[in-house]
Amino acid sequence: MKVLFVSAEVAPFSSVGGLSQVSYFLPRALIKQGADVRIFTPKYGIINNQQFPTRSVIKELKVPTGENKNSLHPQKLICNVNTLIKTKRGDPKVYLLENMEYYEKRANVYNYSDDHIRFGLLSRGALEFIKKKEFVPDLIHCNDWHTAYLIDFLKNAYKNDPILKKIASLLSIHNLYQGIFDFEHASEMDFDDGKSRLAPFFTERFYKQNALKRGLIHADLVNTVSETYAHEILTEEYAGRLHNLFKELRGKISGVLNGLDYNNFNPRTDKIIKKDYGLTSLKQRAENKTDLQKEFDLQVSPETPILAFSGRLHAQKGLELIMDTIEFILSEFEVQFIALGTGEDKYLNFLQKLENKHPQKVGTHLMKNFTLPRKIFAGADMILIPSQYEPGGIVALEAMRYGCIPIVRETGGLADSVKDFNLAEGKGTGFTFKKFFKMSFLTAVIRALETYKNQKIWKKIVRQAMQEDFSWEHTASEYLELYRKATEIRKETQEDNSPFRLEKRVADHVLG
Prior knowledge:
- The chain is an alpha/beta fold and 512 residues long.
- It has two domains: 2-259 and 478-501, Glycogen Phosphorylase B (Rossmann fold, 3-Layer(aba) Sandwich), CATH 3.40.50.2000; 279-466, Rossmann fold (3-Layer(aba) Sandwich), CATH 3.40.50.
- It is built from 19 helices and 15 strands.
- The chain has helices at residues 18-32, 100-104, 115-131, 144-155, 204-207, 211-218, 227-232, 236-239, 243-248, 285-295, 319-332, 345-357, 372-379, 394-401, 412-417, 438-452, 455-466, 472-496, 499-511; strands spanning 2-6, 36-42, 54-64, 76-84, 93-98, 139-143, 168-173, 221-224, 253-255, 306-310, 336-340, 362-365, 382-385, 405-409, 431-433.
- Helix 1 links the parallel strand 1 (2-6) and strand 2.
């Protein structure tokens, strides 16, 4: 199985969110299982040339923009394709699409007014790259709206290309962002049915065409990053104006829970945390709790439970529920609270004021930090993830790996990964609640804090959480099965469209 994995971000070159981690770990796991997986991604200006030296693979790759010869804009954008000179054992080959104007002169990966052009270029550039026959895959694995353009191009602009028309496509939905245009509140005049031809790059119409919708319509198969989320997006509550489309396409939509790299996230060998520990040496975890309390200038107290939040400070993450309840929790329980993350001002201001009001009980780090999350997972007792929606829920997997017990809302990947603790049976890996309501969240927190008082039971929950297996090997096997199905679908579609099949169908119809 030959797969080209196309993504807007890939760790460690361009790491913004969870997509970059999936784009690194999933291809590695697929390679272990025998697939030939290569990655195609932009060569952003943030990529360190000394750390990641490259060599040229294709010079002056001419990527059509769709503009005609009378346009003031170029008909083709000139790119280069490079590959890394050095790779770690087991790493996939990475192709970097190089364009000075749209990638290398940009300080960030996202959030530019011409992102639709930048990712339209990535999508069409990948197809033009394949046409050069450096690597011809059986399937192209696209991710989110940024590369959903590719699927539209593949099935329409290149439908008669002898090489490309045979290639299957899979679209993975990590979140439901549809582009940089506000499709949720678009007028009827700006409505995109997703079936018309993609407009030229530099037109207003291209800006208003819904890349995600088009990818959904034209992909051979679609998957979300958890099974529960695959069902949730069939409802208006989760998918907004796309829910009817998801219902229509439900036959080709499935869910595959993201994995976790158990070598990278391993409390027994982690150099970031204060003291390594494992299932047989849980007592040593206490040193990490002390280290965390010192890190956040909290009173050092081994018996005091630490509640933590680590992630984007955004409404989607359920910060409203924390804001509505944390003062009560701090006043009624002997507890400490830690918050790590960046985001919206109202949450930043609230957390700053909370820390000033409770300096011995609350600690915050309201800026980016890539090492503190592991210290939190290794030292905190509970992680708060009361999300409105959560497609994947990777933070819960990371926390459980380190014995930090998640308190989560049953949604998306959180519902698929965290098992609510049942005292009667003694089974479970966390504490869950269903409704997005402050009393529901508060009840789950109180259940956890009361259970924490019985350390024998608590340590059992910690062990059960640490023993969960969400390794990428399981995830990769499920993706390989999706790849096989997608290639079979593409092959059948090709055969159905062949002149012989069309002629046979006509004859069958005439002869009854």
